[in-house]
Amino acid sequence: MIESVNNELIKKYAKLQQKKYRMQEGLFIVEGEHLVDEACKREIVVDIFATYEYPEAKLVSDNVMKKLSGLDSPAHVLAVCKMLSEREIKGNILALDGIQDPGNLGTIIRSAVAFGVDTIVASSDTVDLYNQKTIRASEGMLFQINYLKRDLYAFLSDVHDTYKIYTTDVVDGCNIKEIMCQNPYVIVMGNEGNGVSEMVASLADERFHIPMSDKCESLNVAIATAIILYQFFN
Amino acid sequence: MIESVNNELIKKYAKLQQKKYRMQEGLFIVEGEHLVDEACKREIVVDIFATYEYPEAKLVSDNVMKKLSGLDSPAHVLAVCKMLSEREIKGNILALDGIQDPGNLGTIIRSAVAFGVDTIVASSDTVDLYNQKTIRASEGMLFQINYLKRDLYAFLSDVHDTYKIYTTDVVDGCNIKEIMCQNPYVIVMGNEGNGVSEMVASLADERFHIPMSDKCESLNVAIATAIILYQFFN
What we know:
The structure is a homodimer.
Chain A: H1 8-14, H2 19-25, E1 27-31, H3 33-41, E2 45-50, E3 58-59, H4 62-68, E4 77-82, E5 92-97, H5 102-114, E6 117-122, H6 132-138, E7 146-149, H7 152-159, E8 164-168, E9 174-175, E10 185-190, H8 198-201, E11 206-209, H9 221-232
Parallel strand pairs in A: 2-3, 5-6, 5-10, 6-7, 8-10, 8-11, 9-11
Antiparallel strand pairs in A: 1-4, 2-4
Helix pairs in contact in A: 5-6, 5-9
C-alpha cells in the first residue's frame, strides 16, 4: 500500500490536476468506478489507484487518494489515462467557438453523443477537455466522441464544400422549427458571453434562432446546443 | 465606510450564506449589478452593499465584501433581499421532484422562463432556490417565475382535473415528437439519479421519452427539461 504523499509516482500524477502538466505528459485522470471502467474499455489506462481491492489497482491510503484527486470528496478509485487520439471524421460535426465553462463543455459532449454527433471540433481557446469538471459533466461520454482542437476558420473553410454549415443568429436567423436539416452538418456554437466570432459566422450557410418568450434574453449555451441537436436528430 | 468584518450587520448578513439562516430570516443575497438591478425592480431589496459608489448602497471594504459574499471572487455590489412571495398560478406548470444540483435548478428556471412556464412547483426535497449557485445559473430569471414548494403528490392530485399532467418514461413513454401538447400543462421532471418517484408518476396522464442515440444512456436533467419545454412551446 502506498501511504506517503511524497512517493515520486504520486507526486508526479498529482500534478495532472494542472492543465500544463496534462499537456506536458499527455495524461489525464478520471475518477470513480464508472469512468475508470469506461477508460479500461478504451484501453487508454496507464495506472489505477484505489483505496480498496480493485482489479489491477495499486492500493493507496485515503490521504494519497486525496493528493491525487482534484475533488473535495475524492472517489475511491481513479485511473491515469493517455489522452484520447483523434479518429477520422465520418458524420455530423459540432464546432465549438470558445466555450469557457468546463461544466458546459461536459454537458455539451453528453448531449452531442445523445443526438448523433460524430465529431466535436473545438477552437483553441475552448476550455480543456480534461478538466475534472468537464469529465464529470460528460458522464463518460467523452470516450464516445471524436474530439479535435483546430483553428475553426481554417477547419470550416476546408469542409465548406462537403458539409452544410449552420449557426445561430438571434437577430436575423430563421426559426429553427421551420428549417430542414441537411446531413452531414456542421453546427457552430459560440462562447457563453459573446456568441460565435464574426469571422467564423461568416462561413455559415444558414442561420437560425430558437423561438422563445421575450421575458428571457438568452439560453445557457449547453441548453441551446442540446435543443438544436435534438431538433436535427432523426 | 464599513471596514470591520465584526460589524453586527455584516456578521448577521454573512450568515445568509447558510440555508438555515436564510429560512430563519426570510432573506437572501444576490451579487453583481445585473441581479441587484433586477431585485430593485422587484422591490424586495432590504440593503445594498458596494465597494464603490452605488445608488442607495452602504460603502464597504473589499474584506467586508468578501465576508458577505459566498463567492471566491466576490462581486463589487450585492443586495440583501426579502424572499420572493408566491403568486396565483395562471398558466403552464413545471413540477420538480427532488432536483439536487443547484446549477441544474438555476438552469431549469432560466429555460422555464424562456419557454413560457408560469409556475414552478418544487418538492420539499428540491435544492434551495436561494443557493448562490442556483441564483447565478438562473441569470436573474428567478425573479420572473412564480416558485412554490409543495408536497407534489398532494399538489398534482389537486390540479389533476384542470391540468393535463405529463412526465418522462424512458421505457414505456411515447416519442415526445409525436404527441400533441395540451395547455395548460403540468410537466413533472425527476431527480438526477432516480427520476420521478413512483407515487408522483402514477398521477401522470401521458408519458413520453426523448428519442436519442443508444450510445448515450441519459441526458442531464436540465437539458431534458429544456428540450421538453421547447417542444411544447408555440
